[in-house]
Amino acid sequence: MAQKKIKPSKITVFISLSLIGIILMLIPTSYTSKVNFTFIDLFDFFLNIGSSAVRYPQADSNSPYYVSRGEYNKLWVAYSNLQAELFEERKKIVKLQRIRLSEPSPNTSLILAEVLSRRNGNLVINRGSEYGIRPGQYVLGDNAVIGVIGDVSPTVSSVEVITSGSCKIHIKICDTESDVYYNGTIEGNGAGGGRILNVSKKYKIKVGFNVYAAKKAGLLEFPRIIGRVSKCAIDENNPVVWDITVAPAYDIKTISDVAVVAINTL
Amino acid sequence: MRWLRFSMLILFISVVQASTAMNIAAITDLHIKPDILLIFLVYFAIKCETYDAVIVSFSLGFAADIISPTLGPYFLSFGIVGSALAHVRRVILLKTTRQQSVTIIAVGIVTGLLVKILSGFKGPTAMINSVFTISAVAVYSAIVYFLIRLFVEASAKWLGVGLHRFGNKGSSSK
């Protein structure tokens, strides 16, 4: 018995295919897009002929250069942190180089420190005795003396700044016109400046004279600028001496980094 | 119709249509490219038997869907318009190249508009062309048809399409 070949009519084919089309329309794109992506994956090479886009080859998981995504992320975080540290160290080098230009003595070390906090007009820095910091050492803020080290712990130290009442530093007032120095002691006036007392009135002190921290054996090898004389008046309590007010060369309120001068005694 | 060969041809056209190499033919900032599938749709709808034309139209629509962001709109619009054209051809012969290219413009615009409407149902993710782009693609395809007519005819011959359509012998699909 001959087998009869069944062939659907044109209208049947058309309606069937239309129904398939309607079903395709009803399926969400998130499912149907897989067909599109499969086509792209299969014919990726041919589809990109003539494209300038570069497709990097997928790394072989057995390759010695292969790292998993998790490992890559971990390494990337570590690398980013190292980069940040490197950036900070570079900044420190730049600062040190700037200070070193005015501190050429090979016996003098500079210890960079950051200001952690301010307390009663003084500063707390993040370096202590572990870094060789000792009480009495001079503290520089961008090449100008801003104070001396007060209390020291292994990890932190306090800086008695020249504007606070607790700081006393031997100074020299420089008459820039005649190159004459007058000795004295500066102490903070508690109002953002320093006072120099007991300088005899016989010395012709004028506003604008430079005030230097005097050199001190084992602590400061060369005089360093502190500020300028901003006011010079007769002392109300003792009319034979001057009451001199000094404006610091460096704005201590905005300081964030300091350098501690450490003389190598060995 | 040799369906295996047709499958290979349709795959080839789809890859060519979707490839970046087609950007060479793109014009204007809108990147208007000729629609080769549209050209083949019109040609096969005119040359094939009505029964084959229906299947060919839907198949070309499915190929167009695969290389577009969504499945469905081209399948329906190419299928419906191609099938309609296969019936119209029984009244109007559309034998000359000029008539066929005008048909490409008309079919291109109609299918484009249908796709635009149907894509609207698929949601905002579907890429919807403007009416100007649809018309421009249709016109550009019609122009390109003059250039690739020999290739289209050779492909049709390879598939065994239209060999006896206007001859004395009966159709191979009968």
Q: What labels describe this entry?
A:
heterodimer; A: 266 residues; alpha+beta; Thrombin, subunit H; 2 domains; six-stranded antiparallel barrel; six-stranded antiparallel β-barrel; rod-shaped; B: 174 residues; mainly alpha; 0% strand
Can you give a write-up of this model?
The complex is a heterodimer of chains A (266) and B (174). In chain A, a hairpin with a 2-residue loop joins strand 3 (138-141) and strand 4. Chain A has helices at 10-26, 29-42, 44-47, 69-101, and strands at 108-119, 122-125, 138-141, 144-152, 157-161, 168-175, 180-188, 194-200, 210-213, 224-234, 241-248, 257-263. In chain A, the strands form two sheets. A six-stranded antiparallel beta barrel of chain A has the order 1-2-5-4-3-12. Chain A has a six-stranded antiparallel beta barrel with strand order 6-7-8-11-10-9. Chain A is 26% helix and 33% strand. Chain A folds into two domains: 10-40; 108-263, Thrombin, subunit H (Beta Barrel). Chain B is mainly α. Chain B has one domain. Chain B has six helices and no strands. In chain B, helix 2 crosses helix 5 (97-121) and helix 5 (97-121) packs across helix 6 (131-159). The longest helix of chain B has 29 residues, at 131-159. Chain B is globular. At the A-B interface, helix 1 and helix 2 of A face helix 1, helix 3 and helix 4 of B.
Q: List SSEs of chain A in N-to-C order.
A: HHHHEEEEEEEEEEEE
CATH class of the largest domain in chain A: Mainly Beta
Average pLDDT figure of chain B: 85
Number of helices of chain A: 4
What value does the Rg of chain A take, in angstroms? 38 Å
Named CATH architecture of the largest domain in chain A = Beta Barrel
CATH topology of the largest domain in chain A: Thrombin, subunit H
Relative strand content of chain B: under 5%
Low-confidence stretches of chain B: 165-174
**Quick check: average pLDDT of chain A?**
81
How many strand units of chain B?
A: 0
Instruction: Describe the main β-sheet of chain B briefly.
Output: none
Termini separation of chain A: 118 Å
Number of strands of chain A: 12
Structural class of chain A: alpha+beta
Number of domains of chain B: 1
Tell me the Rg of chain B in angstroms: 15 Å
Helix content of chain A: 25-40%
Low-confidence stretches of chain A: none
